[in-house]
């Protein structure tokens, strides 16, 4: 009987060992899950909506009209004038209909 009891005790100790390994495995999975969750949270890519640019500004050549000190927005390509300055026009030149000829 003693051998049978010893075998039972040995089986119980083996079961405890298996239970401990099982619990360690479960803990390892829980730890891995936390690490993955934290990684996902910390490294999320946030998509931003496209920025709408202010297109209300008239295109210009970044050159100022010598008469009105306003941005040039028009070049007279049909003009007979060879001088570049006389071929450029700002908003005020256009509205006045003034010719720089």
Give a structural overview.
By secondary structure, the chain is mostly helical. It folds into 2 domains: 1-47; 50-101, no CATH class. The chain is built from 2 helices and 2 strands, in the order αββα.
Key words describing this protein structure:
101 residues; mainly alpha; two-stranded antiparallel ribbon; 2 helices; 2 strands; rod-shaped
Low-confidence stretches: none
Which structural class should the secondary elements be placed in?
Answer: mainly alpha
Summarize model confidence as the mean pLDDT. 77
Number of domains: 2
Overall morphology: rod-shaped
Main β-sheet, spatial strand arrangement: 1-2
* Residue fraction in strands: 5-15%
Structural Rg: 42 Å
Q: How many helical stretches?
A: 2
User: Can you give the helix content as a percent range?
Assistant: 40-55%
Largest sheet: 2 strands, antiparallel
Q: What sequence of helices (H) and strands (E) makes up the elements?
A: HEEH
Q: What is the strand tally?
A: 2
Distance between the termini: 126 Å
What topology does this entry show?
Blueprint: H1 2-42, E1 72-75, E2 88-90, H2 91-96
Antiparallel strand pairs: 1-2
In summary, what is this structure?
The protein is mainly alpha-helical and 101 residues long. It has helices spanning 2-42, 91-96, and strands at residues 72-75, 88-90. Helices cover 47% and strands 7% of the residues.
